[in-house]
Design brief:
The protein is α/β, with parallel strands linked by helices. 45% of the residues lie in helices and 13% in strands. It has 18 helices and twelve strands. The strands form two sheets. It has a nine-stranded mixed sheet, with helices on both faces. A three-stranded antiparallel sheet has the order 10-12-11. Helix 8 runs parallel beside helix 9. The radius of gyration is 23 Å and the shape is elongated.
Length: 369
C-alpha cells in the first residue's frame, strides 16, 4: 500500500461521528478512502447509515497535520500499521462487525497464529487465581498458542509473564497510544513482550489511558481469540465486559469456578451459572474443549509414545516441573490442585517411569534423555 493511501486510511479514523462500522460501509460503497473524501455531500448522504451529520463531518474533515505527525511517529518507532482487509491484520478479529479499521502494532510475532487464547481477570487475584494461570500456561507451553491480554495489573500481568516464561508469544492490547505504557510498573514486561510477542493498539500516539478506552480495548482482546478464559472476576468489571463481547462475537468463553463466598469469583460463577461460560478447572480442560489436546505437543520433553501412556494429571505435573525445574513439591501441590496423597502417587509413578527425579530439599526435576 502506498504511503499516501495509508495516510488516508488513518484520516478515516479521525472523522467525528464516524466509527469503524461506518468506515466499513463507506469503503464498501466507494471503494477507496480518496473516493470517500472526494464524494459530494449528496452522494455521502445517500449511503445507508451515514446521513447529514456524518456526511458534513467527512466533507469538513481536516486532519492532515495530525496524520502527518502520526506518520512520523510510526516511522521513527518502526510501528506496523495494519488495515482491516489487508495482509497482517488479525484474521479472527477481522470478521467482527466493529473491528478497528486501523491497528498499530510493535513486536516480533505475526498476529495470524492458528491458536489464540485471551486471558482476563481481576486486578487483585488471590493465590488460587495466580495458581490457575501458572498451571494453564505450563500446559499451553507445550503447544503453539498465542496468549492475548490487556497488560493490566493482576491476572493480565500474570498471563503475560507466565506466557513468556513458557516460551509462548504474548500480545498486550493497550487502551492508549504506543507512546506510553500503562500501568507504568509494566514497562519492563512490555519491553520483554516486544521480543516474544508484541503490543497492539487502535489508538494513535498521545491518546491517554482514559476510562472510555478500555471497553474498546476489550473488544480487540475478545475478537482476536479463539477462546476467552476468565480466571477470576468480581461482580462487575472489564473481565465480564470482555466475556459479554466474546459471546456477542460467538467466541468460546471459559471460566474457572470459585467458592461461593469469594468476591473475586462471583463474576466467574455468574458466567457459568447463566451459561455464558463453560467451566474449566485446568489447562488440559481448555485444550480438550478447543479440540487441541489431540495435537502432538511441539515443545514437550516427554516422548510421544511415553506421553500417550500418561494420565492427564501426570502430563500436567510434568509440564509444571519442566517449567520450574527444579520444582518444589509445595508449588506442585498449589498449581496442580491435587490432594497430597494423589500427587504423591503420581510423582512416584513418574519417577518409576524414569521421567522425573526426586532431588534433595523436596524438589523434583526432569530426567534428561
Amino acid at each position: 500500500m502506498k504511503d499516501e493511501e495509508l495516510l488516508q486510511h488513518l484520516s478515516l479514523t479521525l472523522i467525528p461521528h464516524v466509527g469503524d462500522i461506518q468506515i466499513g460501509i463507506l469503503l464498501k460503497h466507494f471503494g477507496t478512502p480518496s473516493s470517500i473524501f472526494n464524494a459530494s455531500i449528496k452522494a455521502l448522504e445517500e449511503v445507508p447509515g451515514i446521513g447529514t451529520v456524518r456526511a458534513a463531518a467527512i466533507r469538513n474533515c481536516n486532519v492532515q497535520q495530525r496524520v502527518e505527525a502520526e506518520w512520523q511517529f510510526i516511522q521513527k518507532n518502526q510501528i506496523k500499521v495494519l488495515i482491516r482487509g489487508n495482509h497482517g491484520y488479525p484474521a479472527k478479529l477481522e470478521h467482527c462487525i466493529d473491528a478497528p479499521h486501523v491497528l498499530y502494532y510493535k513486536g516480533s510475532s505475526d498476529l495470524l497464529s492458528k491458536r489464540v487464547v485471551s486471558v482476563v481477570g481481576t486486578r487483585s487475584p488471590s493465590q488460587y487465581g495466580k495458581d490457575r494461570v501458572v498451571e494453564m500456561m505450563a500446559v499451553l507451553g507445550q503447544y503453539d498458542v498465542m496468549v492475548v491480554s490487556g497488560l493490566a495489573y493482576g491476572i493480565d500481568t500474570m498471563a503475560h509473564k507466565e506466557a513468556l516464561k513458557n516460551k509462548l508469544a504474548t500480545i498486550g492490547v493497550l487502551g492508549h497510544g504506543l507512546d506510553q505504557i500503562y500501568p507504568h510498573a509494566n514497562r519492563e514486561l512490555a519491553a520483554e513482550m516486544l521480543q516474544q510477542g508484541g503490543l497492539l493498539s487502535e489508538f494513535m500516539q498521545g491518546i491517554k489511558p482514559e476510562k472510555q478506552n478500555f471497553p474498546k480495548r476489550n473488544r480487540i482482546v475478545s475478537g482476536m481469540a479463539d477462546a476467552v478464559v476468565v480466571v477470576e472476576s468480581g461482580e462487575k468489571g472489564g473481565s465480564l465486559i470482555t466475556a459479554d463481547i466474546a459471546n456477542s462475537y460467538n467466541k468460546d468463553v471459559l471460566a474457572y469456578p470459585g467458592r461461593a463466598t469469594d468476591p473475586s469469583s462471583k463474576g466467574c460463577n455468574h458466567l457459568i451459572r447463566n451459561h455464558k461460560a463453560n467451566l474449566i478447572t485446568c489447562g488440559q480442560d481448555l485444550l480438550e474443549f478447543m479440540n487441541w489436546a489431540e495435537d502432538l505437543p511441539q515443545s514437550s520433553k516427554v516422548q510421544a509414545p511415553m506421553a500417550a501412556s500418561l494420565s492427564e494429571q501426570e502430563i500436567t505435573i510434568l509440564s509444571i516441573i519442566s517449567q520450574h525445574d527444579p520444582c518444589p513439591v509445595d508449588l506442585l501441590k498449589n498449581v496442580s490442585g491435587l490432594n497430597p496423597g494423589l500427587l504423591a502417587a503420581h510423582l512416584l509413578s513418574l519417577e518409576m517411569a524414569g521421567l522425573i527425579t526426586n532431588l534433595p530439599g523436596k524438589l523434583y526435576g526432569i530426567c534428561q534423555p
